[in-house]
User: Fold this.
Amino acid sequence: MIARSFVACILFLSLASASTAEESPSRQQIEYFETKIRPVLVKHCYACHSAEAAKTGKLKGGLVLDTRAGVLQGGDSGPALVPHKPSKSLLLSALRYESYEMPPTGELSAEVIRDFKQWIADGAVDPRDGQASVTRSSIDFEQAREFWSLRPLAEPLVPAVKAKTWPRSDIDRFVLARLENEGLEAVGDAALRTLVRRLYFDLIGLPPTPEQIDAFLERAAHDRASAVERLVDELLASPRFGERWGRHWLDVVRYADSNGRDVNVVWYDAWRYRDWVIDALNLDVPFDRFVRQQIAGDLLPAETPEQRDRQRIATGLLAMSPKMIGEQNKEVLRMDTIDEQIDVVSRAFLGLSISCARCHDHKFDPIPTADYYALAGIFKSTEPLYGFGRVGVKNSPHTDLIPAGPQAAALGESGLNYRHQLVERHLEFQQARSARYGVVRRVADAKNRLQRPGADVDKLQADIARMEADVAEWDEKIKTLEDALNQYIAEPPPQPDWAMGVRNAETPVDCRIHIRGETDNLGDAVPRGVLRAVAIDGLDSPAADSSGRVHLANWLAHVSNPLTPRVAVNRIWMHLFGRGLVATVDDFGVTGSPPSHPRLLDYLARTFIDDGWSQKRLIRRIVLSRTYQLASTDAGAANHPQSPLARGTAIDPENILLSRFRPRRLEVEVFRDAAMAVAGQLDRSPPSTPFLNRWNRYEHDKIKSFNPFVTPQALEHSHRSVYLPVLRGSLPEVFELFDFADPNRVVGQREESTAPAQALFLMNSEWIHERASRTADRLLTENHAGDAQRVERLFLLALGRRPTSMELQDALTYVDPSVVEDGKQPQADVPADPEEARLPRWANYCQVVLGSAEFRYMQ
Amino acid sequence: MLPLQFCTRRDWLRNASAGFGFLALQGLLAEQSRADAGKLSALAVKPPHYSPRARRVIFLCMRGGPSHMETFDYKPQLNQDHGKPGRRGGSLKLLGSRWKFARQGESGLWMSELFPYLAQVADRLCVINSMHTDNENHSQALEQMHTGSFQFVRPSMGSWVLYGLGTENENLPGFISISPLKDLGGLRYYSSSFLPAAYSATLIGEAGKSIQDANIAHLTNDRLSRTAQRQQLDLLQKLNRNLAEQHPADHRLEGVIQSYELAFRMQNEVPRVMDLAGESKQTLDLYGIDGGRTDGFGRQCLLARRFAEAGVRFIEVTHKDWDHHGFLTRGMTGRCEEVDRPLYGLLTDLARRGMLDEALVVWGGEFGRTPDDPTEDGRGHNNKGFSMWLAGGGAKPGIAYGRTDEYGYEAIEDKVHIHDLHATILHLLGLNHERLTYRHGGRDYRLTDVHGRVVREVCA
Assistant:
């Protein structure tokens, strides 16, 4: 944790600026130091800033103040003072509690602070000898690049294995080599029924229908390998693939359809970015291009207007941060927005969390504050375009949107103009309202005063009459303004398509270091650039007249960037195995976990690049491996102590070595889609029009808790979950309960929490009841020979298997209204008439299956 | 089902001996993987860092920013200079308080006449008159009050406490928010953010709506009787157990089974705690539960006591509409009347049941008000100085700590930042705010970020 101390903030303040010119000090000057300065240093500073403190490990901020050299050299934040220049001396601003707050136990008296100012102004005469005693820590980038994730990708040799017939691919050889090393054995292959379900869920996020299962089983009976291969290719080619895998990426970039935070502005155009991501996955856009487009799509060459639009839409990533719209200090808002951009870019692409360098050098990773502000300069030279801030409020941070579509050129300008006008009119209307309210309050006030003894009744009454006339006048004016505004809202001119994204600011600027991250505490400007920890040969620095975004994009997506491909393949691996080879998928820094299979990771990363950064090909390679196709259990020998499963779970409970397949809970979207599919309610096609367009974007510009238009019902539709609006703070309940990725944060890996609130939902909610009833309805209306066939159908639809005889018996007993077992009460609360009783009983039974762990966990 | 008050952790473990309880114990021994952090065992009781003064918190959040000059911060100079130009220039004039202040109790604590009931337990209060916070917007100040940060989405104080200590009654949620705010993005104030979801608040009702019919979501099933539901659940658990037996090492499946059992028990347990029917007339009177103006907040406070009694770790209660830019007279009279008697009732009731020693009660809003205003009956936002109070749970009773300047513009002596308050609350719970950390995205986070001073002067 960071102590309140001189933490490293400005590493690159020039040391030379600290004058070392020796003048011989006068006697008075020395006496001044000895009486006014040294005692204060001893009493208030040495405990944390002295050679003694360094020895005992109490030194803070790398700063010693017990020698002259130490003071001049300074600590992590640069020299403690500049002789003759109090205003440039950190020591003084720290004492004043401006830069730091020193000493932390409480501000020293104004007199002492004046003494220090005087002392520094007089040249900071300091007779103390001795070395600085602490060597200034600075980052040795050469050495830092020796850290595993920053090293260039290795070209690992595929290891030799003993069980030569076991592997189906090189991936298997890497895994098996580790297992053999540890003396472990893999369990057997997954049953075909398990495997087909696993592939459907993992690749397209939907359960296979009984017919799809049968078709696969039939083919696999002849040739397992080719049947699997064919199925995988079919699934990868399905448009449903992009909906499944696009959502993984949307988690990472914290995709949302509204701003969240204090003013929850609806982003009516965010979906274009969402659909762009889905399309990109379906088209298998090479990942390096996928990266470049999201960072600098607006600046990349485009051959057609459509391509230009798509690339601009891709930059939506940079506009989607949650923003504190009401923040009064616009500079704070700007820097917070930039921080969010830096955070999403660094974690999504590099697996590095560098936001801490906003205030101080990164504690663990080789990221100095200067590098943070080099990146900040790039984003300061970039304008985020997210649309309205809060309409009707002065100085709210409104931005443009990007005109797109065939009408972009024709309607863009008039459309933007309409939006500007709208903001103006809202403001005028609101200002009139607050003016009126001001008068109303004064009327109330005057009436209060009337009650007081000795009030000037005549004058007050005259005032009141005059003010009430004012109010009436305001009322009229407000009415006029409101009518005009409503009409203006109701009849917008023809609009182009709008998109969120970014554009270059008019003039590129460098960003100054913000000491301690504070906007009013500025250090030197840092040239725009990228992290020095990842240096790539042959990449020049950004041109002086550019924002630097193209440079950033090229650097991120460069074939020699060691982080980008590693982070990308690790995420893909994580989605298929439930755990990354690097368990901390968003942290490839020093505090993250090292890879469990470093050579496999680099092998995958290399293969990924060699495959033209194709995500589909990588996924294909992985799911065709034997490792992926292992069983999750060992039905026969689960309890035999020497079985591969028993030994694997005992020695490697977390399954890091991959001796088996670890069951995974379905993500909430998959759960919802599957439940709706079983119930026959799911429309597998994407919605034909953007869902939020049912609302007037200029009327419902933001979500308020009392807005009747944001209700659970209003947010439901029968399409796949990925198309449900992600309104921050108003997520569908089922999303909130089952660990949907928090759209306020970068989420590489979701939680998998188990809470009673989930069980209550699955036991009692209208939502589950609706799904169960519709499933029952379906079973009862479909043409089945009898109840046994219905139960079988239910199991095949929901669980992809037939019921065991025991399960079948239990089910039949449960749904049979005539059975009263062992004197137990029959099920209560269902109509006595057997025919009428059928649906509720079946619904109750379907609920059992939909709520079961087997339905909700993929094996 | 065991009666609630006797359902200790040991009983819980015994009830669940074959299953989850056993695993929870195991979980304490084994290094928990990241994926496991979201499991139920995350709620198991954990020892504090050092001997605690309080075991739970009742946080009474007064949304809107109550005026300190009308409540606990007596400003004779302000009254004397009423009508004179204020310090902030413009047309702002100093506004004296309309209400009389008097010393109350043996401690002689200054309180305004707006709190005739609370004044009777003045000696139990530990008033802090030197609070300050970083932001003067409601949503940001409220967020900082709850999470320590106004810039980023962070875990709520209640989530941190639950993460630090676990919960004592695993038949109930460990962090409950009664009548939470849902506007201004309010749900963030109670979310666990990057802490596992198990630490999020369970919400009951909504601020501004009647508490009488409020409940935890999906707690009842109107289609099935309890017996019929048990029958259905048995069938479900049979399926679940089959799967769990095939995956003997997978704790999550056992977790699913136990979460269903817990949910089933909660259906009984929660209504029992929330049912005020067993409370005596005398107790209801104590809280002002009489259908009148004190009824709503009285019920909220009584619920808080009942949840505290049942072992809930962190209980928050929200009371709205303290934002008096205008109509201060009407507003303060109304709001104070609504809370005065319930506050008195809560403290008295907790004390007579011997629960006040263990429960730290915290009262206050996101900021205070300005001493000046252009109108004669309103006050602006003031984040630089305001009052809050603590009671019970190791807070020093009968003192007023810190002070603002002679008008109440800002805290000038023994200042207590909201970070300091957080550090102090954790301290009283036996948690060192610098050690209560959670690793997320490569960094250790704290409720107090890099700030916070334990205000030992307010600790008994």
Remarks:
- Chain B is about 30% helix and 15% strand.
- Residues 402 and 414 of chain B are 5 Å apart (CA to CA).
- Chain B touches chain A through 87 residues (CB under 8 Å).
- Confidence is low (pLDDT under 50) at residues 1-40 of chain B.
